[in-house]
């Protein structure tokens, strides 16, 4: 097994979350997958995973290996894309889907600069917060946040982003700062009802410990901008992506809480079907998005 195939094997294993799921994905038996993992750990001389009959979790060495593996594979994919993709100017219709708020604030401006750069491309931007099925919904590229459950799709990270908890100084002065995730049960929390995510269940990580807290409050909505407005009106604590909160945190209108805990990933991805992997219009658009958001992250104020 080559080093590159070992990297791909381990990242696949962690993406699907279990030896059995990896076996199904690779058309192998679970014992064969377990043997392959044992050989990898034996070659490295370290244990990468803690294993039980029902679950797997990363060791410290496994976390380092996974992080490096993902970076190396991304660099290889990018190199191959640059070598093999057509360098002709992109032409034709490109259909893009993005979440409502983020689409208005960031994807729309990114498409504007893309259209000025490539005059022969036509872009249709569809904004919705409902889940879509790429083959069925006639979308070429979808912009999505966090972990992606469908392994049949290609996902390219275009920006780093994270979820943060915050409230106004007035709310925190009146009701106090939560010191631990479990303290949130005693607070009014503003809950977003979006997609099929578990309603009102907030997950936190600290070291190797994971804690899920059921939160609640008098206000809930399926619209992120409404939830943010309620938080600014001092109705409670909100968990929201950094792109939506950064300006208010810098201005002091909102204050971050429980900042020493990690929340689920909210990194931003461009998602598309494998058959479009060598499409010039898709490749050029995704590279443009990466440049657009890289310029934000390189500035002193990554998100407005």
Brief rundown of the structure:
The chain is α/β, with parallel strands linked by helices and 304 residues long. It is 41% helix and 23% strand. Strands 4-3-5-14-6 form a five-stranded mixed beta sheet, covered by helices on one side. Strands 11-8-12-7-13 form a five-stranded mixed beta sheet.
Q: Determine the strand fraction and express it as a percent band.
A: 15-25%
Number of domains: 3
The CATH class of the largest domain turns out to be Alpha Beta
> Quick one: overall form?
flat
Name the strands of the widest sheet in spatial order: 4-3-5-14-6
CATH H-level name of the largest domain... which superfamily? Periplasmic binding protein-like II
Class of secondary structure makeup: alpha/beta
Task: Please give the count of helices.
Answer: 9
- Which blocks of ≥5 consecutive residues have pLDDT under 50? none
**What's the CATH topology label of the largest domain?**
D-Maltodextrin-Binding Protein, domain 2
Going by CATH, the architecture of the largest domain would be 3-Layer(aba) Sandwich
């Amino acid at each position: 097994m080559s080093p590159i195939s070992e990297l791909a094997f381990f990242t696949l294993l962690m993406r699907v979350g279990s030896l059995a799921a990896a076996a199904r994905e690779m058309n192998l038996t679970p014992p064969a997958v377990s043997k392959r993992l044992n050989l990898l750990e034996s070659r490295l001389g370290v244990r990468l995973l803690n294993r039980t009959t029902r679950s797997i979790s990363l060791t410290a060495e496994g976390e380092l290996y996974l992080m490096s593996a993902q970076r190396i594979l991304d660099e290889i994919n990018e190199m191959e894309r640059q070598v093999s993709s057509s360098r002709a100017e992109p032409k034709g219709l490109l259909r893009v889907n993005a979440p409502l708020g983020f689409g208005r604030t960031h994807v729309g401006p990114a498409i504007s600069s893309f259209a000025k750069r490539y005059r022969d491309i036509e872009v249709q931007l569809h904004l919705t917060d409902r889940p879509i099925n790429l083959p069925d919904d006639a979308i070429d590229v979808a912009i999505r946040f966090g972990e992606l459950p469908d392994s049949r799709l290609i996902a390219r990270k275009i920006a780093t982003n994270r979820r943060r908890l915050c409230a106004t100084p007035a709310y925190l002065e009146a009701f106090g700062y939560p010191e631990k995730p479990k303290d949130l049960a005693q607070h009014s929390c503003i809950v977003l009802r979006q997609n099929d995510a578990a309603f009102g269940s907030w997950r936190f990580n600290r070291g190797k410990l994971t804690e899920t807290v059921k939160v609640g409050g008098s206000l809930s909505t399926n619209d992120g901008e409404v939830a943010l407005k309620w938080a600014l009106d001092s109705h409670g604590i909100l968990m929201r992506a950094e792109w939506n909160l950064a300006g208010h945190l810098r201005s002091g209108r909102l204050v971050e809480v429980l900042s020493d805990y990690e929340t689920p990933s909210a990194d931003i991805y461009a998602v598309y079907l494998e058959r479009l992997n060598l499409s010039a219009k898709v490749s050029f658009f995704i590279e443009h998005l990466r440049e657009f958001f890289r310029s934000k992250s390189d500035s002193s104020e990554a998100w407005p």
